[in-house]
Design a protein that fits this description.
With about 170 residues, the chain is α+β, with helices and mostly antiparallel strands. Helices cover about 55% and strands about 20% of the residues.
Length: about 170
């Protein structure tokens, strides 16, 4: 790991798992509609899905998501529900408000700060999608395979760990 290759592999693996997580959630929502709440979180070795769904339902959705991404359907890697969008929106809004207010009177600059924040939030949607596409996800899943799905329960909450294996580059 001293040469950074291990860290780079972990980042790329997380980006691919993030894409697979998005695609799996999209398949689940496509099949079950927007009546459900599903949350995901990616790691270098796989991802977690939190939500009320059955293991067979999840297994089927993950398999379909992997097939779609491996067929080159890259659009499945980017999600309008991703936390990256919130991070981009928050960062842009904070920076724009700081730039507008500066060292001037905060009260006097409030209207300008509101306009700057709203403009930032409008810009955040397309910029968040670009950040996902080029920074936080990678749809290139050739050589990626699912090695296991484990179900966990924490009180009434069910969640799943989806383990992946990635071919060496």
């Amino acid at each position: 790991m001293g040469n950074g290759i291990g860290a780079w592999h972990a980042i790329e693996a997380t980006r691919r798992n993030h894409a697979l997580e998005h695609a799996a959630v999209a398949v689940l929502l496509e099949r079950g509609g927007f009546r459900r709440s599903i949350v995901g979180r990616s790691t270098p070795s796989g991802f977690y899905i939190y939500g009320r769904l059955s293991r067979p339902e999840l297994e089927s959705a993950v398999a379909e998501a992997l097939r779609r991404l491996q067929r080159g359907e890259e659009e499945w890697a980017v999600s309008p529900f991703c936390g990256t969008n919130l991070a981009v929106a928050g960062t842009l809004a904070a920076l724009s408000v700081l730039a507008v207010v500066g060292n001037r009177s905060r009260v006097a600059q409030l209207p300008n700060a509101i306009v700057a924040a709203v403009a930032s939030l409008l810009a955040a949607q397309p910029l968040g999608r670009l950040a996902q596409k080029y920074v936080t996800t990678s749809p290139h899943l050739q050589g990626v395979r699912v090695t296991g799905i484990t179900e966990y329960a924490l009180g009434p909450l069910r969640y799943y760990r989806i383990d992946t294996e990635q071919a060496a580059a």
